[in-house]
Please model this.
Amino acid sequence: MNPAGAIPTIIDDGFALSESLSINLYLAKKYGHGDPLRLYPTSLEGEARVWRWSLWAQSHLEPWVQRDADLLLIREAAAESSFNVLQKSLRILDMAISKSGWLVNGSFTIADLNVAGVLSPSRAATAGVHDHRHVSDWLDRCYQRPAALAVRERFG
Model:
């Protein structure tokens, strides 16, 4: 179902979709409109910000924090350089979060879920996140949400 032969992949009403960030965006847009805590913004500008942060996380954070065994030699060879690039990205994220506590519209959205997902607790532990107070506090809030706690309890 996934052309890359990887997980995750979903099938929703016969529509197959892979890649976690795109799955999150799709599900939030399709099913998140009736929720009073709406994960997906209703304005075009809000939608653009959600996409911006989701794509930013994939290009500016994920390459430096992923733990793919196939990239181990590359990560080790570029350890200091990649850590510096990651810290620059964390400073950008820290500044953005400092303004309202969240990435889009001053509340938790799918952008927060996607970026926090890239900075999972195991990845954040080795990324130097603790040096960025707003990012560290924001991640704590993201991972203390009832849904996040329930998922970790269910799947360990």
